[in-house]
Amino acid sequence: MTDTSLTDGPLPDDAKSAPEDRESAGPLDESEANAVRPYVDLGGVKIVPRPDLQLRLEVEEGSKRVIAVGIDYAGSTLQVQPFAAPRTSGLWHEVRAQITEQIKKQGGETSERAGAFGPEIIARIPVAGGDAGAMRIARFIGVDGPRWFLRGVVAGQGAVDAAAAEQIDDVFRSIVVVRGQTPMPPRDLIPLTVPAGATQSAATPGAAGSAAAAPPAPPA
Question: Which residues pair with 142 in a beta bridge?
Answer without folding.
Answer: 151
